Amino acid sequence: MPIGVFVLAAAVFAQGTSEFMMSGLLARTATDFGVSLGTVGLLTSVYAVGMVLGAPTMAATAGRWQLRRSATTFLALFCVTHIVGAVTTDFAVLVATRAVAAVANAGFLAIALAALPRLVGPALVGRATSVIVSGVTVACIAGVPAGTLLGQLWGWRSAFWAVAVVSAVVLVPVASMVPRDGAGVGASDRSMRSEWAVLGVREVRSAVVVGVLVNAATFAAFTYLGTMAAAIAGTTGVWVPLVLALFGLGSFVGVALTGRYSDRHGHAIITVGTAGLVGVWALAAMTAHTMAGVAVMTLLTGAAAFGVGSALIATIVRTAAPAAPRLAGALATTALNIGAVLGPVVAGLAVDRAHTPVAALWCAAGAAAVAAVIVLFDWPGSAHGRGLGTVSDRPSEEASGG
User: Fold this and answer.
1) Residues 97-110: pLDDT tens digits?
2) Which residues contact 117 (CB under 8 A, 6 or more apart)?
3) Cβ within 8 Å of residue 269, ≥6 positions away
């Protein structure tokens, strides 16, 4: 595996820490700015909205740039926004920095994912994707709990400063070790309009829809995971970062296993995984009244959710890349972050209505159930006797009108 893939994963670690760390900082941020917990919770959705809008926009803008140039630019912007966020005393400015940071994050991730077929070859896209996504899972294991501890010790601003410092440090190897080529593959002879036509391909479209639902489930539950742990633990604040770390540990295991097998068995992983997610999220809801139940199910749900999510990312990139080299990574990023927008919003409504954060877990089970139905009854691999993990020329032909 080229070293540039691991360098990109290191940058994704910093970005993943920022994206997920608000789960453990909501209460302190709300107190500092004098706003409600629900209002601060929207910072998660704002970040996701920024990634939804930023992925295709930045992919189109930077799609012709060299990989090193685009990655360095996006990471530098990401770093600066966290410095501004750490010093601001205006909640509106903080919201704005989260939106800009998300756009930078989306651009970085979209360009990195789109470059994988060129960097490692189509046969290793699944494994390379798992390396990139592992940056997020390691962030959940180490970065998010560390950010939560920093927030508890020195305030939420210290977590923002930590992300800025890590981003600045990673910027050096990104600027020097990431290959210059890899992005913009095939961009010179394709219009963005023709690339969007790839959504007309059933394989790509189904994977995108399932990706939205699976990540909606993940974010619906994760947004309120720290709140659930805090409600059970009471004044024992150490449980909150520990539970978040367990989610990250599970997600790392899930991504590692998926990366090993998804290039050959992607369809099977997605089929079994989406069905399994229904039961896993439902069981998590039923056992969420004890810390032991929360801890064990957090580990299992992290593994299942990120394992399936990683397989879906690889599927979208692999099937879309021949016809949409610039948008392949953006489609994967956008799909997952549309889910990240919808999940917390729907879960927030359910939590307010039920007056318990456990309602978010039932929302996750519901979203997973819809995804499972699509995979079982409307998944092209099932209908045509082949999985989406198989590389074919069909996406390129259909998207180009062939």
Assistant:
1) 999 999 999 888 87
2) 125, 185, 317, 318, 321, 325, 328
3) 258, 261, 262, 307, 308, 311
